[in-house]
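Input structure tokens:
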């Protein structure tokens, strides 16, 4: 992985994503949008796992579901939104201390 991708992966793990979720988000961040099958093939995770993890990423506000020509496609949110979520998570952790 490139240094930029490694840095993004580390950021994602800090806000509580697991390995599969971080891989999905990182892949979606490198393309404009993608259907589940493309994501599954690109990162070598079973499609059923990709569906489950994408649903969780949508609930976290990290991924958007869009309607493509042949069905649903998914898109990562922008870096500003990711930074906001990271800041919120850091505040939560500080409050627990």
């Amino acid at each position: 992985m490139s240094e930029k991708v490694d840095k993004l992966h580390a950021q994602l793990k800090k806000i509580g994503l697991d390995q599969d979720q971080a891989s999905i988000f990182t892949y979606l961040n490198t393309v404009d949008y993608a259907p589940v099958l493309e994501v599954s093939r690109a990162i070598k995770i079973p499609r059923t796992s990709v569906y489950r993890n994408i649903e969780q990423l949508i609930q976290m506000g990290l991924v958007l579901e869009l309607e493509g020509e042949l069905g649903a496609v998914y898109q990562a949110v922008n870096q500003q939104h990711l930074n906001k979520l990271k800041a919120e998570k850091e505040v939560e952790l500080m409050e627990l201390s």
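Strands lie at 63-68, 71-76. The chain is about 65% helix and 10% strand.
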